[in-house]
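in:
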């Protein structure tokens, strides 16, 4: 039985949703989806209110998902204009720059309106029309939000490429979506170092149509090259643009953006999201999952280059009229107290980050946290991967001081918003559990081979979703067949998440990691995350990644890549010690067969370990590493190949 952490009665009484309300709303969301989601649509201002709510077909070959199909709205209007009457002078965006010595900016809703309208007019003047694609290759600066909203205002489709990506990755995305424009900045400081975004863009554009224009934000003022006729000074044009640009009426099903998945499991997919359904879902999950209240200061530390940044830095918060914080820097610069300094400085109420950041900060010791005043915090969130209980407990004790419910939100680029999470005022949380489905979400646990639904509790299997929710992706850009094949072919009639999950005796959900990461050792199926979690609980281990490899006797053997803590020396003794450790923590069946010391692990730019590459190395199959363009540091891979553990 795991520990449970119920919210305090004070918290419950102030929360939007308590346990009884959750049960009642959840039941209605399933029994009367049309009524439920028609009500939720009232969160938005529509130019024509939708009368048709849900219209979906999941028959393979004809997958078609529509929500609010006759509704007409403008997303930027909903995120800006409609708030002006009551909160023109309220801060919409707090910008906290990389360097803590530089002043923070507070951008009001009135200023946001001005900037977005001017940028929208610039886009129009550059010939951008409804349905055209605009690639945004910007760091975490307010202009990134302006650019998103400017696109939304005129009905252009944006596709953000994370500013840490290489010229190649940028070029691939510009070409895949056929963008007319790329918006970038001169250079981008991050953690005290600068990325030359404009010169990366120059390099990328060598591989793109010469019709693509480049709009450049002057951010640091650093010198850049300039190609007359192609490059455009965005700041200059904005200053001279008209300050009003009417919001274009868009159909609810018109695409709002394309976002490429992080590529942990294969070639990135251009996930397409809608305008109406997406915004309803982003707005609702933002308010309910974080128990956001009027006047709160909300901070999601993700990058706008990830879906988390789309839904929970920009669209969700602004649709709710919130104050959202954009942070340009990294958690460890100038030192490991930065996150907590920023929370203290801006009196952050809701704080949302990733397990990888929590683990990194936890490794630096408690002093960085305990020295800061975190009394403003009310709710904490995590997203991105399963959080190991050790990190959860640290987050709960040291950051939340036992006072703040932790919402472990499970979702994907494809889902637009949270699909599972405890609600802070409704559920007693469990360290590492995503707990409960969000409203309208019908999770099913499938037996991996037969695809049959497993109703028994407790159980474990493949996580799929029956039916639809408004934030669901609509297609893969330019490849509807890939959309159907990736998500609807394996288990007919269901959306296949690619993740595995466990349901405990209470009916609560635990994400066990990607299904590909389940290994079968002598007939025992286990999630590699479990072995990793045991390994990182050892004091000498900083990080671990576990994959299966073909084993003549066991079917699959357990191959562990381990990064040791700073001062620890690798040795054969230590390998023995770790094997014994895992045997006692989990059992003999989980005992590592091969251990490789890994000074670094191959990670995506979003900080996720790319296990598919580690699997290939473990299988001795170096020729087929697949798409490595989204790796943060490709040299890590060469090192791992060179020092591959001997199968012996
Ligand atoms: P690709 O689909 O290209 O391989 P990706 O799946 O890493 O990339 P994202 O959409 O950013 O791209 O990540 C979604 C995945 O992250 C989920 O499928 C799941 O594996 C993991 N994940 C997200 N949140 C959680 C969570 N709270 N608990 C466990 N896993 C999570
Ligand atoms: Mg994925």
């Amino acid at each position: 039985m795991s520990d449970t952490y119920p919210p305090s009665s004070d918290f419950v009484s102030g929360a939007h949703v308590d346990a009884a309300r959750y049960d009642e709303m959840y039941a209605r969301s399933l029994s009367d989806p049309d009524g439920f989601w028609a009500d939720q649509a009232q969160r938005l201002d529509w130019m024509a209110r939708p009368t048709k709510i849900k219209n979906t077909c999941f028959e393979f070959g004809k997958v078609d998902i529509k929500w609010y199909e006759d509704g007409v709205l403008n997303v930027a209007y909903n995120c800006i204009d409609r708030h002006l009457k009551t909160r023109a002078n309220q801060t919409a965006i707090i910008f906290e720059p990389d360097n803590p010595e530089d002043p923070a900016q507070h951008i009001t809703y009135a200023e946001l309106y001005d900037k977005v309208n001017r940028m929208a007019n610039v886009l129009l003047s550059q010939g951008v029309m409804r349905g055209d694609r605009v690639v945004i290759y910007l760091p975490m600066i307010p202009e990134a939000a302006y650019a998103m909203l400017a696109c939304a205002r005129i009905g252009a489709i944006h596709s953000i490429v994370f500013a840490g990506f290489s010229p190649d990755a940028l070029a691939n995305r510009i070409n895949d979506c056929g963008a007319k424009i790329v918006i970038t900045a001169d250079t981008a400081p991050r953690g005290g170092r600068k990325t030359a975004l404009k010169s990366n863009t120059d390099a990328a554009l060598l591989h793109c149509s010469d019709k693509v224009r480049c709009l450049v934000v002057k951010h640091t003022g650093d010198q850049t090259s300039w190609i007359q006729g192609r490059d455009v000074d965005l700041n200059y044009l904005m200053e001279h643009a008209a300050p009003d640009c009417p919001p274009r009426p868009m159909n609810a099903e018109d695409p709002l953006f394309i976002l490429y998945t992080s590529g942990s499991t294969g070639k990135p997919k251009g996930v397409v999201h809608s305008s109406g359904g997406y915004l309803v879902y982003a707005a609702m999950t933002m308010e309910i999952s974080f128990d956001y209240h009027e006047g709160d200061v909300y901070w999601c530390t993700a990058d706008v280059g990830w879906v988390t940044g789309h839904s929970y830095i920009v669209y969700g918060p602004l649709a709710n009229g919130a104050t959202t914080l954009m942070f340009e820097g990294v958690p460890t610069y100038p030192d490991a107290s930065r996150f907590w300094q920023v929370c203290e400085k801006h009196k952050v109420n809701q704080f949302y980050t990733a397990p990888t950041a929590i683990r990194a900060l936890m490794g630096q010791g408690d002093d960085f946290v305990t020295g800061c005043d975190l009394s403003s915090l009310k709710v904490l969130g995590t997203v991105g991967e399963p959080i190991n209980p050790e990190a959860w407990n640290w987050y709960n004790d040291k950051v939340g001081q036992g006072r703040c419910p932790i919402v472990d939100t499970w979702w994907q680029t494809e889902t637009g918003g949270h699909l599972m999470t405890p609600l802070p005022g409704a559920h007693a949380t469990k360290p590492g559990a995503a707990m409960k489905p969000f409203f309208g979400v019908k999770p099913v646990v499938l037996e991996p081979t037969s695809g049959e639904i497993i109703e028994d509790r407790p159980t474990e299997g493949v996580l799929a979703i029956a039916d639809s929710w408004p934030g669901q992706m609509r297609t893969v850009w330019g490849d509807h067949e890939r959309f159907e094949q990736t998500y609807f072919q394996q288990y007919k009639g269901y959306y296949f998440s690619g993740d595995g999950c466990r349901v405990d005796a209470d009916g609560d959900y635990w994400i066990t990691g990607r299904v590909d990461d389940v290994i079968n050792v002598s007939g025992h199926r286990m999630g590699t995350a479990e072995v990793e979690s045991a390994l990182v609980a050892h004091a000498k281990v900083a990080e671990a990644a576990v994959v299966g490899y073909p084993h003549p006797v066991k079917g699959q053997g357990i191959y562990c890549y381990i990064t040791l803590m700073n001062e620890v020396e690798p040795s054969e003794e230590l390998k023995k010690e770790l094997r014994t450790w895992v045997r006692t923590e989990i059992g003999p069946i989980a005992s590592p067969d091969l251990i490789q010391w890994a000074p670094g692990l191959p990670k995506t730019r979003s900080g996720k370990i790319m296990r598919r590459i580690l699997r290939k190395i473990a299988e001795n199959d170096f020729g087929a590493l697949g798409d490595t363009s989204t790796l943060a540091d490709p040299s890590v891979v060469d090192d791992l190949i060179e020092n591959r553990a001997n199968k012996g």
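note: The two ends are 40 Å apart (CA to CA).
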